[in-house]
Design goal:
Layout: H1 3-7, H2 23-54, H3 56-62, H4 67-97, H5 105-129, H6 133-149, H7 162-165, H8 167-170, H9 172-185, H10 190-195
Helix pairs in contact: 2-4, 2-5, 2-6, 2-9, 4-5, 5-6, 5-9
Length: 196
């Protein structure tokens, strides 16, 4: 044995497990999650309230169509509109801010559609239970800000008390952020990300 081995028994080197080219790429899933949450929830809730005020909901109730089909129609319509908005945001992010999207296009699109679907349905539910735009906005803010704080976006869930860690499983923002980070930045498959 040489004395050098006793003084320095191991060599340690560090390398990144995932190459993230710039800071904008690192924060993009978080920003995208927040934008999807606010816009999808607000737009869908305000659309439902606007339809109630115009009497469209009353006319829809007289039609021999099941309520689930009406909700599905609203979901698909809002999903198309919001997908166009998120596509424009993705193009701007890649073109203007140099964001590097990993993974394939289909998995990224499915992850975004899942996120949009969750928050559009939340907005439709809020719009159905509120009667004015101001009450819908206040309800959304009352739901959204706690979701942000217990989603792991600001403070990692691992360092929160164990009682708060359960919110990771029921918080759609936490699921959206994890899903988008895994598929868009890390290039991890959608199937693995859903299990995680």
């Amino acid at each position: 044995y040489s004395p050098e081995f006793l003084a320095k028994p191991t060599d340690m080197s560090f390398s990144d497990a995932i190459e993230i080219p710039n800071l904008a790429t690192q924060f993009y899933p978080t920003v995208l999650s927040l934008v999807i949450m606010f816009t999808a929830t607000l737009l869908s809730a305000l659309t439902v309230i606007s339809e109630k005020k115009q009497g469209i909901v009353t006319r829809l109730r007289t039609m021999p169509t099941h309520k689930s089909l009406i909700i599905l129609e609203k979901l698909i319509g809002m999903l198309i509109i919001m997908t166009l908005m998120v596509t424009a945001m993705n193009l701007a992010g890649v073109g203007l801010f140099g964001i590097h999207m990993q993974g394939d296009f289909i998995q990224n699109s499915l992850a975004i559609a899942f996120a949009l679907g969750c928050f559009i349905m939340l907005g439709i539910a809020i719009g159905a239970f509120t009667s004015t735009e101001s009450s819908a906005i206040l309800t959304i803010l009352a739901l959204v800000f706690p979701m942000i704080f217990v989603s792991g976006l600001l403070i990692p869930l691992e360092i929160m008390p164990s009682g708060f860690q359960i919110f990771k499983w029921i918080n759609p923002l936490a699921a959206t952020s994890t899903l988008l980070a895994n598929t868009t930045v890390k290039g991890i498959s959608l199937a693995y990300s859903i299990v995680e």
